[in-house]
Amino acid sequence: MSPIQSSAHKAENQSPSFSGHNAFRSDPLLKDIATDMPRGLRADFETVGKFVSSTEAQDLARIANRSVPELRTHDGSGNRIDQVDFHPSWHALMRRSVSIGLQGSVWEGRREEKGFAHQARGIRFYLTAGLECGHLCPLTMTNASIAAIMAAPRIEKSWAPQVVSRRYDSSHRPAMQKTGVTIGMGMTEKQGGTDVRANESRAVRAGEGVYRLEGHKWFLSAPMSDAFVMLAKTGSAEGEALSCFLVPRILEDGTLNGLRLQRLKDKLGNRSNASSEVEFSDTYGFLLGGEGEGIRTILDMVTLTRLDCALASAGMMRASLAEAVHHCRHRRVFGELLIDQSLMSRVLADLALDVAAATALSLRLARAFDNARDDPAEAAIARLMTPVVKYWVCKIAPSVIYEVMECMGGNGYVEDRALARHYREAPVNAIWEGSGNVMALDVLRVLTRGKELCEVALQSINKDLGAAGPKTLDVLRACMAVAESDEGAGRLLTEQLALAAAAAELTRLGAGHVAEAFVETRLGGAWRSTYGMLDARFDARQIVDLLYPPAS
């Protein structure tokens, strides 16, 4: 081979592989949030952080997303089986994530997690989301399902131990014969979508607490699950109301429960996970809660899934930006490292502020979940801020990850890196479990029906925000006044609440220059529509190095 040919194939001015580090240790903000947690939990976070950054884990994630699930409706003899097949890489990711409790650790009551259960699981979930989000979908629903199952104590007694089991069992057997189960969800129908009150599926009482269902679901998430939390109408035509059911996929005698999968959705992202359309008849389900209490029952489950949406989006943003910073520390353009060029450093710093805010805000919500039972103020914060956090964190993720992609140029646009996977995945969390308008309507619902809850949240923001608190409260109260008379202003109020709460949490955490820059640029009213708008008052390079410290 000639010298010219040889040099042409020599990879110069390329960043080294972004693997082998520890995603927890290299995240100063996350470590600060975990400071007050027991040493054993912090050791767990380090273990997770090491795994998700390993070459082995990255390969599992890549293969799982390229080897998409396949639906087999019938076996070779023509028997209906309605089975979804997954690549072994998917099962490996599921096995690992179940073993660390992502499917139900908040319900275990472990002594070392007392007072931190949602936060501890939240950190593990956030770190894992930076690896691969598709397999987290069934684990989110499994964890949240207990909130609905608890409405039926008899069902809870038999099903809860299977849900919280840290043993992943993918066998196609009745749930009570397995070492652990996963739970899916079926709410939306073709004619209704978000408007679940338009559901047409029906359920007729077949025995004590047992009903026979008939209908369809337009999106049945994770169709390989062992059971599904579903809505269907009960009662007479004059007095129909939605009720909530736990519907097993396989009955106790080993026969299928009438759930006929029509097809798997061909989705933009979330490729490793299966989502399906399903029709069903003579399908049996257990009533959760009372007849007509379906929406109230399933909303307890939905609230937990919304927290996971925010955590996953924050985790993807953090992992994406960490790789971009790594790239910019090694890539030379026009004779200088990208990280040393002011336009690039300001873009990275601006992105880093939003990613830090999303992380702090999501885990602040997890803390409110932990404290809500014993502290009415925290319960009020959890009620108001769940839609606020879900709205803002999930909505900024696509634009953040796109800008990260631009920082890396063509290297960020190819499927060889995790960044492309994160970018395709990013929109789903803003859509799933309530899009932006649904979240804004939920905030307005609190404003009109429980204004005192808003006041509790505002006082918490004021206390944590320090000097910027009073002026920020004036802005928030003005937004509330507008939104009370103009429903169309719901997004304005929701975003302002998110920015204020994020600034307050960064300040409370003692994030110093990071908090100051976020307050000045996000609450100061400066015009901005893209990233890189920091001015010279802020040391962009310092912000980047604080949040993404160089490898030692």
Please describe what this structure looks like:
Strand 6 (227-234) and strand 7 form a beta hairpin. The protein has helices spanning 3-8, 28-33, 39-52, 55-66, 88-99, 117-129, 136-149, 153-164, 294-328, 342-371, 376-408, 418-431, 436-449, 451-465, 469-485, 490-508, 513-522, 540-547; strands at 70-74, 80-85, 183-186, 202-207, 210-221, 227-234, 241-248, 259-264, 275-288, 332-333, 336-337. By secondary structure, the protein is α+β, with helices and mostly antiparallel strands. Helices cover 51% and strands 13% of the residues. The mean pLDDT is 95. Helix 3 (39-52) packs parallel to helix 6 and helix 13 (436-449) packs across helix 16.
With strands numbered from the N-terminus, the spatial order across the biggest sheet is 3-5-9-7-6
Number of strands: 11
Helix content: 40-55%
Strand content: 5-15%
Low-confidence stretches: none
Whole-angstrom Rg: 24 Å
Q: What class do helices, strands and sheet pairing give?
A: alpha+beta
Number of helices: 18
Q: Terminal Cα separation, in Å?
A: 38 Å
The major pleated sheet works out as:
5 strands, mixed, barrel
Arithmetic mean of pLDDT = 95
Q: Spell the H/E element sequence.
A: HHHHEEHHHHEEEEEEEHEEHHHHHHHHH
Shape type: globular
